[in-house]
Automatic annotation (TrEMBL), chain A:
EC number of this enzyme: 6.3.5.7
Annotated protein name in UniProt: Glutamyl-tRNA(Gln) amidotransferase subunit A
Family statement: Belongs to the amidase family. GatA subfamily.
GO biological process: translation
Active site residues of this protein: 79, 154, 178
Record function comment: Allows the formation of correctly charged Gln-tRNA(Gln) through the transamidation of misacylated Glu-tRNA(Gln) in organisms which lack glutaminyl-tRNA synthetase. The reaction takes place in the presence of glutamine and ATP through an activated gamma-phospho-Glu-tRNA(Gln).
Gene3D superfamilies: Amidase signature (AS) domain
Organism: Anaerovibrio lipolyticus DSM 3074
Domain (Amidase): residue spans on this chain: 24-467
UniProtKB/TrEMBL annotation, chain B:
Family annotation (PANTHER family): GLUTAMYL-TRNA GLN AMIDOTRANSFERASE SUBUNIT B MITOCHONDRIAL AND PROKARYOTIC PET112-RELATED (PTHR11659), GLUTAMYL-TRNA(GLN) AMIDOTRANSFERASE SUBUNIT B, MITOCHONDRIAL (PTHR11659:SF0)
HAMAP family linked to this entry: GatB (MF_00121)
Catalytic activity, reaction form: L-glutamyl-tRNA(Gln) + L-glutamine + ATP + H2O = L-glutaminyl-tRNA(Gln) + L-glutamate + ADP + phosphate + H(+); L-aspartyl-tRNA(Asn) + L-glutamine + ATP + H2O = L-asparaginyl-tRNA(Asn) + L-glutamate + ADP + phosphate + 2 H(+)
Superkingdom: Bacteria
UniProt KW keywords: ATP-binding, Ligase, Nucleotide-binding, Protein biosynthesis, Transferase
Protein's name in the database: Aspartyl/glutamyl-tRNA(Asn/Gln) amidotransferase subunit B
Pfam families, alphabetized: GatB_N, GatB_Yqey
Function: Allows the formation of correctly charged Asn-tRNA(Asn) or Gln-tRNA(Gln) through the transamidation of misacylated Asp-tRNA(Asn) or Glu-tRNA(Gln) in organisms which lack either or both of asparaginyl-tRNA or glutaminyl-tRNA synthetases. The reaction takes place in the presence of glutamine and ATP through an activated phospho-Asp-tRNA(Asn) or phospho-Glu-tRNA(Gln).
Top-level taxonomy: Bacteria, Bacillati, Bacillota, Negativicutes, Selenomonadales
GO MF term list: asparaginyl-tRNA synthase (glutamine-hydrolyzing) activity; ATP binding; glutaminyl-tRNA synthase (glutamine-hydrolyzing) activity; transferase activity
One biological process term in Gene Ontology: glutaminyl-tRNAGln biosynthesis via transamidation
Enzyme class: ligase
TrEMBL record, chain C:
Chain's role: Allows the formation of correctly charged Asn-tRNA(Asn) or Gln-tRNA(Gln) through the transamidation of misacylated Asp-tRNA(Asn) or Glu-tRNA(Gln) in organisms which lack either or both of asparaginyl-tRNA or glutaminyl-tRNA synthetases. The reaction takes place in the presence of glutamine and ATP through an activated phospho-Asp-tRNA(Asn) or phospho-Glu-tRNA(Gln).
Family annotation (HAMAP family): GatC
Gene3D superfamilies named in the record: Glu-tRNAGln amidotransferase C subunit, N-terminal domain (1.10.20.60)
Keyword Electron transport included in the entry's annotation: no
Binding partners and assembly: Heterotrimer of A, B and C subunits.
GO biological process: one example: translation
EC assignment: 6.3.5.-
TM region(s), chain numbering: none
Protein name according to UniProt: Aspartyl/glutamyl-tRNA(Asn/Gln) amidotransferase subunit C
Family indicated by similarity: Belongs to the GatC family.
Catalytic reaction annotation: L-aspartyl-tRNA(Asn) + L-glutamine + ATP + H2O = L-asparaginyl-tRNA(Asn) + L-glutamate + ADP + phosphate + 2 H(+); L-glutamyl-tRNA(Gln) + L-glutamine + ATP + H2O = L-glutaminyl-tRNA(Gln) + L-glutamate + ADP + phosphate + H(+)
Enzyme kind, highest EC tier: ligase
Annotated keywords: ATP-binding, Ligase, Nucleotide-binding, Protein biosynthesis, Transferase
Length: 489, 480, 96
């Protein structure tokens, strides 16, 4: 394997053993960017000079014989909705195309304490609204396995960078599947931690009660390491959980014997691609073979998850995005006679179609006369969906199902029909509504050789069991060693 | 037809915390513009609020002092509307589960009648920033400047029931609320700095009817005078409209204090639809009975209780006790005067009289009085001992206002000690009798009032230092 | 159509968005389609169900009332579209 294809834990060992330098590694990744970024278009900002300087500083440290932390000197990408002090944070929106946050997100503060090499900011669906990264105002990212296909979304840039070898690791954010689904589409590992596990301070809000930051990595081991770094209570985020963070790498054991794995029947019905169903069923068989007990379960309110999610998230988005008014930051439309006109022109001109659509859905659902029938109703059904999981977890340790009903589809194939796009999120949104952790790990390929992901859902704050199942499954096969054929590869 | 006014108030009070409600920026008034701001109160992308614990404590204290029930489960909500002084374009406030509900205060009207004004709710929220207009008025500015220093300063909003029926009642209610908030020390209540301001809602209905009329609202009234004047004007205006067979339009009107009138603001295309939603970034507040009781115990003696105590303990009239206890500072000053051993009624008279007059003349707060409670108490002691007369005391007080000397020293230095020596007074009396034979004869011929002129002469010649009682006694003796 | 012209106008005002005439039909249709789909929720009996706003049972998270350093004013204004003398500058406000 080439350097840029290696997972972080391998590279970390190589740095420690002085087999490579961080500069060599960083230059290899930057060279890979030169080679494939024109096709993949994963990045919105590349901070090449900063990356090289960071790498050199780490090499000096190693040369002095100092110990280095896990991510030290290893290049990664940050989704462009995570605030980075001094570097543009655009959310792939024209309205923030020149916005430079004067502060770091808490995850950035935590990461920076590790001295990683930050390559740049990754493309995404504008304000994280979308499942294909086609809603970026700036560029369409290609799936490294077939650049005519979408990488998924909204963290499509992060997942594509990791899959293409233009980043060793990445951070994404997941509101309704935005880490897990692109991980599934790009054949990498992506985890949405429990709501509250990772601070949201500095994550540009889409839907605050659902958003969560998480890692996108080449394998489960890297996922556990990065989760260790970014987790924990943050005094800047009142909704962050005040629980001790376990060492997630301790969960990396190859053993699922006696674990009860629930298979929700509602996740294998209409709309599911036959290749996905077959591949996921094989993965389930594999878990059984490895000693897990497979239990069929029911999550009866699954059918209502899409409606619930697409009422709650736009309602929250409608208020969260009200701040983009051209007053104190962001772009401002010219030639407005008064303030109201300025705000309206600014938003009309600088927000994208899908963002506008969700703002309008949200304001409709919150407006007088429709509030009870839509927004309030959705909050009630949300409780029922959560209770479904509560009941299921009385019986089982984890729940396993597809991450997405289909593999990656062609760019442009679905984008014109919003409702059809929304229905693609059926397997991922229930977790966000219930606040639960979930991971997507590669479990095979479609007939078109596009990756398929297996989703493992855990109890609240029980990322450890998910990691254990994911790791055991991963080690039983070799999908995590497969790399997209791209450029010279 | 005769009408009766129905008035309700929404009082906004800024709390005197060190920091803003949801971030660590200072709340100090008068700072250089846009220097007390951070990513959180600027509403930058990605920020989250964190609740200042003291805001909750102050809100609960205010609720208890205003006889409210404290909701054991309370939460924050987003109130959505666009305004450039509101960086997120929503105000974090409380909607269906405010921290306090169902309170009241009692007001005493000038005719002595007491009336209970019910309080619907008290909720916590953030203040907005300030727009500074570059022209003379809002209307002739092409642009506005925004200062976000005030954005996020903690507020409580105290919403009354429409229980008031006159401008006087509205003013008294607001004065009472102010007094209570000052007693419990949760707000500076400096109205000129906008610490305390009220939205006034008023409607009219035929006297005796219990149907509510259409109301109008006047926002951000920040003086007691303006509360009374704006309501008086608005009640008259509505009366005229109704008398002419017109209808009141539900609207917000502005009070123009210079012209003394209310004006219709440009009518809205749509009524505000605030689209309240639970604030996902803040967690619920759960308060236990034990915590509530601890707050209750921590409250100081409140105005009503203190007034009753002053009446009972010192025999002050209800009126005097009411004035003395109307502000915590004055009540504490009174207590400090009493502590020196001074007579309570004299103390009340001096505080409400010369002290208040001098403070008002120089626009001073009682806490900044040049004559502190100790010196005033000492001076009152001199009156009670007979060292000085009440008349001389006025001179001594004026001297004390100007100098830090003790009243004893002033009396001594200025030679103001009352002459109680009978012999000295007799000498003056003899001289006066000799020089005023006419008055003496009048007196002797039965015009007893003529003695007044003689007393006056004696006092004059003694430069006010003779004890008037002694003078009277001696004169009466000498004149037989 | 569930969604009326008036609904669309109201939503546009609440959203501070202009809906161009040539997009109005499309926007209305798309909003209508999703809302019709969302109506599947009406089949769920939620009579005794409390709304769920916070997914985790966290309460009483407070900050001590201690002053933290504010942003340097130049930094606070660094993203302002228009600024003058330390102020954010906006077009005139017509009171509503």
């Amino acid at each position: 394997m080439k350097l840029f294809e290696q997972p972080a834990h391998v590279l970390h060992d190589m740095l420690v053993n002085k087999e490579i330098t961080s500069l060599e590694l960083t230059e290899a990744v930057l060279a890979r960017i030169d080679e494939v970024e024109g096709d993949v278009k994963a990045y919105l900002t590349i901070t090449r000079d900063v990356a090289i300087a960071q790498a050199k500083a780490v090499d000096e440290k190693i040369a002095k014989g100092e110990t280095i932390s896990f991510l030290e000197g290893i290049p990664g990408a940050i989704k462009d909705n995570i605030c980075t002090k001094g570097v543009k944070t655009t959310c792939a929106s024209k309205i923030l195309q020149n916005f430079v946050a004067p502060y770091d997100a808490t995850v950035m503060t935590k990461l920076k304490a590790q001295n990683p090499v930050i390559i740049g900011k990754a493309n995404m669906d504008e304000f994280a609204m979308g499942g294909s990264t086609e809603n970026s105002a700036f560029q369409k990212t290609g799936n490294p396995w077939n650049t005519e296909c979408v990488p998924g979304g909204s963290s499509g840039g992060s997942a594509a960078a990791v899959a293409a070898g233009t980043a060793v690791w990445a951070l994404g954010s997941d509101t309704g599947g935005s880490i897990r689904q692109p991980a599934s589409f790009c054949g990498v590992v992506g985890m949405k931690p429990t709501y509250g596990r990772v601070s949201r301070y500095g994550l540009v809000a889409y839907a605050s009660s659902l958003d969560q930051i998480g890692p996108i990595t080449k394998d489960v081991t890297d996922c556990a390491h990065i989760l260790n770094i970014i987790s924990g209570r943050d005094e800047m985020d009142s909704t962050s959980v005040n629980e001790e963070v376990p060492d997630f790498t301790k969960a990396l054991v190859e053993d699922v014997k006696g674990l009860k794995v629930g298979i929700p029947k509602e996740y294998f019905v209409k709309g599911i691609d036959p290749d996905v169903e077959k591949t996921v069923r094989e993965a389930i068989d594999k878990l059984k073979e490895l000693g897990a007990e497979i239990v069929e379960i029911s999550l009866p309110n699954t059918d209502y998850a899409i409606s619930t999610y697409y009422l709650i998230s736009p309602a929250e988005a409608a208020t969260n995005l009200a701040r983009y008014d051209g007053v104190s930051y962001g772009e401002r439309a010219e030639d407005a006679a008064d303030l109201v006109e300025m705000i309206t022109k600014t938003r009309t001109q600088y927000l994208g179609e899908e963002v506008k659509r969700r703002i309008m859905i949200g304001n409709y659902a919150l407006s007088a006369g429709y509030y009870d029938a839509y927004y309030l109703k959705a909050l009630k059904v949300r409780r029922l969906i959560k209770e479904d999981f509560d009941k299921a977890f009385e019986q089982v340790d984890v729940i396993v199902c597809p991450t997405a009903p289909t593999p990656a589809y062609k760019i442009g194939e679905k984008i014109s029909n919003p409702l059809e796009m929304y229905l693609q999120d059926a397997c991922t949104v229930p977790l966000n509504l219930a606040g639960l952790p979930g991971i997507s790990v590669p479990c095979g390929y479609s007939s078109d050789n596009m990756p398929i992901g297996l989703q493992i859902i855990g109890k609240a704050l029980d990322e450890e069991t998910i990691l254990r199942v994911a790791y055991t499954y991963e080690q039983s096969q070799s999908y995590h060693n497969d790399r997209a054929q791209l450029g010279g590869n | 037809m005769s009408y009766e006014a129905v008035i309700g108030l929404e009082i906004h009070s800024e709390l005197k915390t060190n920091t803003k409600i949801f971030c660590g920026c200072a709340t100090t008034f008068g700072a250089e513009h846009n220097t007390h701001v951070c990513p959180v109160c600027l509403g930058l992308p990605g920020v989250l609020p964190t609740l200042n614990k003291r805001v909750l404590e102050f809100a609960i204290k205010a609720g208890l002092a205003l006889n409210c029930e404290i909701n054991k489960f309370s939460k924050f909500d987003r109130k959505n509307y666009y305004y450039p002084d509101l960086p997120k374009n929503w105000q974090t406030s409380q909607y269906d589960l405010p921290i306090c509900e169902n309170g009241y205060v009692d007001i005493t009207k000038s005719n002595g009648e007491t009336k209970r004004i019910r309080i619907t709710r008290i909720h916590m929220e953030e203040d907005a920033g300030k727009l500074v207009h570059s022209g003379n008025t809002i209307k002739d500015s092409d642009t506005s400047n925004v200062d976000y220093n005030r954005t996020g300063v903690p507020l409580i909003e105290i919403v009354s029931e429409p229980d008031m029926s006159s401008p006087e009642e509205a003013r008294l209610y607001m004065e009472k609320v102010k007094s209570i908030l000052q007693y419990i020390d949760v707000s500076n209540c400096k109205m000129e700095e906008g610490n305390l301001r009220a939205d006034l809602n008023v409607s009219l209905r035929p006297a005796g009817s219990d149907v509510l009329g259409t109301r109008t609202e006047m926002k951000n009234i920040n003086s007691f005078k303006a509360v009374e004047e704006a309501l008086t004007y608005e009640i008259e205006r509505q009366e005229e409209v109704l008398e002419d067979g017109g209808h009141i339009i539900q609207e917000t009107r502005t009070w123009d204090p210079d012209r003394g009138i209310t004006l219709s603001m440009r009518s809205k295309e749509n009524a505000h639809d605030y689209r309240y939603m639970p604030e996902p970034d803040l967690v619920p507040i759960i308060t236990t009975d034990e915590e509530i009781e601890a707050f209750r115990k921590s409250l100081p003696e409140l105005p009503d209780a203190r007034k009753a105590r002053l009446e009972e303990q010192f025999g002050l009239s209800a009126y005097d006790a009411g004035i003395i206890t109307s502000s915590r500072e004055m009540a504490e000053y009174f207590d400090a005067v009493i502590e020196t051993g001074a007579d309570a009624k004299l103390a009340a008279n001096w505080i409400m009289g010369d002290l208040s007059k001098n403070l008002n003349a120089e626009s001073l707060e009682i806490s900044d009085s040049p004559v502190d409670a100790k010196r005033l108490g000492e001076m009152i002691g001199l009156i009670s001992k007979g060292t000085i007369s009440s008349k001389i005391a006025k001179k001594v007080f004026e001297e004390m206002w100007k100098s830090p000397d003790s009243p004893e020293k002033i009396v001594k230095d200025k030679g103001l000690v009352q002459i109680t020596d009978t012999k000295a007074i007799e000498e003056i009396v003899d001289k006066v009798i000799e020089a005023n034979q006419k008055a003496v004869e009048d007196y002797k011929s039965g015009n007893k009032k003529a003695i007044g002129a003689l007393v006056g002469q004696v006092m004059k010649q003694s430069k006010g230092k003779a004890n008037p009682q002694t003078v009277n006694q001696i004169l009466a003796q000498k004149l037989g | 159509m569930k969604v009326t012209k008036k609904d669309m106008e109201n939503v546009a005002v609440l959203s501070r968005l202009d809906i161009p005439a040539d997009k109005e039909a499309q926007y209305t249709q798309q909003l209508n389609d999703v809302l019709e789909y969302f109506d599947n929720l009406s089949a769920v009996n939620t009579d005794d169900i409390k709304p769920l706003a916070h997914v985790l049972p966290i309460s009483n998270v407070f900050r001590e009332d201690v002053v933290k350093e504010s942003l340097d004013r130049d930094l606070a204004l660094s993203n302002a579209p228009l600024k003058e003398d330390g102020y954010f500058k906006v077009p005139k406000v017509l009171e509503d």
